Amino acid sequence: MKMNNTWDADSYRDNFSFVPKYGEDVLKLLTVGPGSKVVDLGCGNGSLTDRLQSLGYQVMGIDASPAMLEIARKEYPNISFQQADALSFQLDTPADAIFSNAVFHWIDADKQETLLRNVSRNLRPGGELVCEFGGYGCGEAVHSTLEELFREHKRTYKKIVFFPTIGQYAPLIEKCGMRVEYAILFDRPTPQKGTIKDWIRMFDLKPFDGIPEEETDEIINEAEERLRSRLFIDGTWYVDYVRIRLRARKL
């Protein structure tokens, strides 16, 4: 089972570098010492995997996207990268920590328990999960506007992301054999290098599957105009991100 999106890896690297940049703060939640085995789950182009290695960890990057891994292997040839599914990857030896940034929200709600059980299975006892992903209300201005426009076009908008509250997610973690040690949900309006249209085309094009290109362009253009008064601030587009950041420990 792959994540609910496909990636233009070059555009992601060139225009959406804020994703790994914000992940730098999540690294601070790791408590394992130098030399520990740390897996970067959903490593993308490998930039945060490289940062983990620079902190003294023994690292491996795992991702489902061949295009992302092609860039990662080219940029960081001294790091081991593996193509695998977050729901089913298997490590030869359990990790001291599994780190993940901006990944879990791409996995269907009904697959989250499978994800967390597999994470737990691949951690040593006492090992930790450190991650950040979209939380309740993330990108809601964009999603609600697109939902409205789809209705006007006699279409059904299907949100492809899972944005839980801490109250929804913490019990899942505990059910899968881990204890939540730290969790926070916070607003993080995020400036974009490009336009809101660029963001939709990178992160939210899946709901347009089966819609003719001309109509897709029309809806996206209309969305940008409706969102301009809310998300275009002092010459820069923002997306109304909400994040969950947490650390959990395997029992």
Automatic annotation (TrEMBL):
Q: Name one Pfam family in it.
A: Methyltransf_25
Extract the InterPro entries matched here: Methyltransf_25, SAM-dependent_MTases_sf
Q: Name one GO biological process term.
A: methylation
Q: Per the database record, which ranges form the Methyltransferase domain?
A: 38-127
Q: Which UniProt keywords apply?
A: Methyltransferase, Transferase
- SUPFAM superfamilies per record: S-adenosyl-L-methionine-dependent methyltransferases (SSF53335)
Instruction: Name one molecular function that GO assigns to this entry.
Output: methyltransferase activity
Q: Tell me the PANTHER family matching this sequence.
A: TRANS-ACONITATE 2-METHYLTRANSFERASE, TRANS-ACONITATE 2-METHYLTRANSFERASE-RELATED
Q: What is this protein called?
A: Methyltransferase domain protein
Q: Which organism is it from?
A: Mitsuokella multacida DSM 20544
